[in-house]
Design brief:
alpha/beta, 2 domains, nine-stranded mixed sheet, binds nicotinamide-adenine-dinucleotide
Length: 357
């Protein structure tokens, strides 16, 4: 394959700052076109992108079918709001194209299951944008874990607790987002801890979701602002703003999760993970390994930062498309994560611990 011909569905904020920005750095990628519901804005953007990058103006369409009638495409990034991921991701695979779908992969287990089945039938790359897996500091931790330095990991704690950091727009509208911080940032924290634990099989889930503060709109706080029009001041805020969960796995290990867009506590936007094992422990942020050596407690700090995670993610996707390599974050794992997200939400609604089928 000379050049990978790429299209993006949902030419909004993450598409602009991550997917398109990184595809555009590669000479072996041709950016064919965009599909979006807001044609006028995206057509204007396509022209400015072409002017700034020196590349041809990408074609803009209202549907993937329209794009495929006019253009040849190999791979598609799905970057629309959460509740539309399943529809577009299935369409991409059904058309025999390679897929990179943003997180959360879907907002329901039934859709995740359908997507997994479609991915299994397809010989194309089907990858989920679980971008934190591509961080340099996470890659460093994975080396310790894979080498067995932690022994058996029996407990993991993960959290992202923002004092104030509710995204604007559709994120707080459940019909579009499928949920609040659990779907938005909880998916990253949960996935990362679970993946580093070795992807154990879920046994029981106890979840707690609440809207503790709601539409606060404090001044002078920067927050993620999507490009889709509507709900600019979070007028519709019918999701949780805080979520917690306690998950038991069939191998006896346990994961504890806490995420908030807003909480009356100290500001901390960072994704934290701590893994406790029989031989050693490790923490992400600060990056440290806790062990014993020669009868002495040792703490090893590493000088590794986050690195350009989106560049690593997009480069990985393009390399998978070119070489047939299996992606680091695949649709089967995406399905397992969606199962946990759905169980957390349902456990909270029903006010009891749920057992996985
Ligand atoms: N990996 C990460 O760290 C990360 C960070 C931010 C956002 N995201 C994910 O990226 C996705 C998009 O988020 P965003 O902040 O870029 O949103 P956005 O609103 O900026 O972009 C969404 C785009 O999709 C278009 N759109 C909306 N509904 C559509 C539909 N039915 N059909 C076609 N186009 C449609 C909108 O016009 C807009 O251009 C979300 O799933 C979000 O969770 C991931």
């Amino acid at each position: 394959m000379e050049k990978v011909r790429v299209a993006i569905i949902g030419m909004g904020q993450i598409a602009k700052v991550a997917h398109l920005a990184e595809y555009a750095k590669r000479d072996d990628v041709e950016i064919v076109g965009f599909v979006d519901a807001e044609l006028a804005r995206v057509e204007q953007f396509a022209r400015s992108f072409a002017r700034d990058s020196g590349r041809p103006v990408p074609h803009v369409y209202a549907s993937l079918e329209d794009l495929l009638v006019n253009d040849q495409v190999d791979a598609v990034s799905v970057c629309t709001p959460n509740t539309t991921h399943a529809h577009y991701a299935l369409q991409v695979l059904e058309h025999g194209l390679h897929l990179l779908v943003e997180k959360p992969m879907t907002v329901s287990l039934a859709d995740a299951q359908r997507l997994q089945e479609a991915a299994e039938k397809s010989d194309r790359v089907a990858m989920v944008g679980l971008s934190h897996r591509f961080r340099d500091d996470v890659t460093a931790i994975k080396r310790f874990v894979d080498a067995g330095d932690l022994g058996q990991v029996y407990y993991a704690k993960t959290r992202i607790l923002r004092r104030r950091g509710t995204p604007k727009g559709w994120f707080t509208h459940r019909q579009v987002s499928g949920g609040g911080p659990l779907m938005d940032i909880g998916v990253h924290a949960l996935d990362l801890a679970w993946w580093l634990m070795g992807q154990p099989q879920v046994k029981t889930v106890s979840g707690f979701l609440t809207q503790g503060i709601g539409n606060d709109n404090v001044d002078f706080i920067g927050t993620w602002t999507p490009l889709s029009t509507g709900n600019e001041r979070n007028q519709v805020f019918d999701t949780e703003d805080f979520a917690a969960a306690f998950i038991r796995f069939t191998n006896g290990s346990v994961l504890q999760l806490e995420v908030a867009w807003e909480v009356n506590g100290p500001q901390d936007d960072a994704l934290k993970v701590e893994l406790f094992g029989t031989k050693g422990g490790i923490s992400l942020d600060p990056l440290a390994f806790y062990g014993t050596s020669h009868g002495v407690l040792t703490t090893v700090h590493s000088e590794v930062g986050m690195g350009p995670l989106f560049q690593r993610e997009i480069d990985h996707f393009v390399e998978c498309v070119k070489t047939g390599q299996h992606p680091l974050s695949d649709v089967r794992q995406g399905r397992d994560v969606v199962q946990m997200l759905e169980m957390i939400d349902r456990s909270s609604q029903e006010g009891r611990e749920l057992t996985a089928p």
